[in-house]
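Let's practice the habit of predicting before peeking. Look at the sequence and jot down your guess about where helices and strands might fall. Then scroll down.
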Amino acid sequence: MKLILNEDEPIFIQISKAIEDEILTDSIKEDEQVPSTTELSRLYNINPATVLKGMNILVDKNILYKKRGLGMFVNRGAKNTIKLLRKESFKNKFIKNLIEEANKLDIDKDELIKKLSKVGYEYNTQLNQFK
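Done guessing? Here is the structure:
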């Protein structure tokens, strides 16, 4: 699992997002076991209770399930659940704020779409330079 801890958000949230990312990229598949709290706490030098708190968030979202005595495993349909939850979060955090700001600046729908298209084109052009 790839995780670079930062000060921007609580560690347990970063742990849950990192596990979600591993599921989204198929690094951890449905019905597979996720790394244990002990493994993650040693790897990142953090308290096992912090790791468990992050994992329990995923249990509450039905992304992970516990097998008594064995550990945590990825639920079937977890990848789809993560995508749905993240799309909703994306809409609420980014798109809603974008539209509100556009309204404040009197940017109409057509102008906003043009700006988004231009930014998308510039971004893709920059990405292609790295290939």
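How did you do? The mean pLDDT is 91.
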